[in-house]
Amino acid sequence: MSNVSLTPTGPPETVLDLEPPDALASLAAAGDDRDAVAAVVARWPRFLDAWARLGELARDDVEAYAAFRVGYHRGLDRLRASGWRGSGYVRWEHQPNRGFLRALAGMTAAAAAIDEVDERDRCALFLRQLDPTWPPAGPLR
User: Is residue 52 a contact partner of residue 99, using CB atoms and an 8 Å limit?
Assistant: First the structure.
């Protein structure tokens, strides 16, 4: 099954599959408890929203960078499995894409925090290529 569709105004667009309902419920129940979120990640290691949340709750910049980077790479794997071939839109407007985009945005900020300027710039550009309307209005959660 491919979740890539052609758009009349530009490159193809990819929408990731929804997360399992029990994973979503577990992350909601975990709230902002870092250890509870880590347990969700351990149970569903492909759950991109959980990796992004873990990065947001990290104890320091290096831990944040590591969690966001795992979420980013897991997201690339899921995008490829959904038919994405390295180009095309992955837009915020589609709820299933948000975990990946949050991980990438978090990695951008964490790279800046550890003074990895090249990575920060690459990630910021990639976000705008994936969704030309980036950043979205409102909170990233």
Answer: yes
